[in-house]
Design brief:
372 residues, alpha+beta, paralog of FGE (formylglycine-generating enzyme), 4-stranded mixed β-sheet
Length: 372
């Protein structure tokens, strides 16, 4: 069963290397894949007793005043991963123990990222020229900065062909998420997107923070709930309302926007989880610090930081980092990876119109005057 969206498998370099006609386009070969096609109603994770002893959140008090915009996540033990048959790369479910840490209450916003850029003059990877040495045989005039943009087709299409709704768009970047004709004006509180892993880590360093580990991210997303199918509990639409910014309607051509948002939503548009965190499901994929490899070590772990290197059998030789949380494109029809145990992956140079991040902080890692 296909498991990942095209943007999670195709990096900027490999995308731009497949150039044809008068514009940058993604051309298939083995780079295409879908995502999990399961229905969340049948994707509920098993009770803790089927895998290991139940987890526990410790009553660790906050070690001090919260850095601005961050939430204290108390330490504890939980069961990481998923037994969903469509998510084989998230197995086995295993026990993880974490010390407490701080985590951004929301995804990093356009306003926050703009402050970083203004302060440092940073140029994101999507804004930088492509190096001709990386693309032998490709005309220089085609090597223009850009990124991957979700582009709905005109009508119903096969879900086996993600190129029907993804395009490499010259001029697409964090200021212009859908290309030169788009803008973030009036969207200061939306999550910044079109940022690759390098961009996210650059921001985190500037802010005196870091990216969360995958284990930290999953533990925080669960909000103290043990093995619930959704980060907010057992019901897909609690009280008849959508609890996350995901796709409604026929994917990928007809979004009814029943939840009020066609693409990204302002952060904190939905209720927080049990730890007071917003948008830990849907809205924008979020980068983690870990290298991606399918599957986990089954042994119990304490503050795991992931494998020492990347190894993705789907694209050998392309370094990948973990992404978590899903995006506004998640749907029962195609991709249910907004569920708490689900994983994503992305080439380190890959950005997209649905990829963002949030930051973490070990409570002893930075003096207060370095926290922004």
């Amino acid at each position: 069963m296909p498991m990942f969206t095209a943007t999670q498998r195709i990096g900027r370099r490999s995308a731009a290397a497949r150039l044809g006609g008068s514009m940058l386009v993604l051309l298939a070969a083995g780079a295409l894949a879908g995502c999990n096609l399961g229905n969340p109603a049948s994707s509920s994770e098993p009770p803790a007793s089927s895998a290991a002893p139940a987890g526990k959140v410790r009553n660790d008090p906050s070690p001090g005043e919260a850095p601005e915009g961050m939430v204290w996540i108390p330490g504890g033990t939980f069961l990481m991963g998923s037994d969903d048959p469509g998510m084989a790369d998230a197995r086995p479910v295993h026990q993880v123990t974490l010390d407490g840490f701080w985590l951004d209450r929301t995804e990093v916003t356009n306003r926050q990222f703009a402050r970083f850029v203004e302060d440092t003059g940073y140029l994101t990877v999507a804004e930088r020229p492509l190096d001709p040495d990386d693309f032998p045989g490709v005309p220089r005039e085609k090597l223009v900065p850009g990124s991957l943009v979700f582009t709905p087709p005109a009508g119903e299409v096969s879900l086996d062909n993600p190129l029907a709704w993804w395009r490499y768009v010259p001029g697409a970047n964090w200021r212009h998420p859908e290309g030169p004709g788009s803008s973030i004006e009036g969207k200061d509180d939306h999550p910044v997107v079109q940022v690759c892993w390098e961009d996210a880590t650059a921001y985190a360093r500037w802010a005196g923070k870091r990216l969360p580990t995958e284990a930290e991210w999953e533990y925080a997303s669960r909000g103290g709930r043990e093995r619930a199918p959704y980060i907010w509990g057992d019901d897909r639409k609690p009280g008849g309302r959508w609890a996350a910014n995901i796709w409604q309607g026929r994917f990928p051509d007809r979004n009814t926007s029943e939840d009020g948002h066609e693409r990204t939503a302002p952060v904190a548009s939905y209720p927080p989880n049990g730890f007071g965190l917003f948008d830990m499901a849907g809205n924008a994929w979020e980068w983690c610090s870990d290298w991606y490899r399918p599957g986990y070590d089954s042994r119990p772990a304490h503050n795991p930081k992931g494998p020492p290197s990347s190894d993705d059998p789907d694209e050998p030789g392309v370094p990948k980092r973990v992404q978590r949380g899903g995006s506004f494109l998640c749907t029962d029809q195609y991709c249910t990876r907004y569920l708490p145990g689900a994983r994503g992956k992305g080439a380190v140079d890959s950005a997209g119109s649905h990829i963002g991040f949030r930051c973490a902080l070990s409570w002893t890692s930075a003096p207060a005057d370095e926290r922004r």
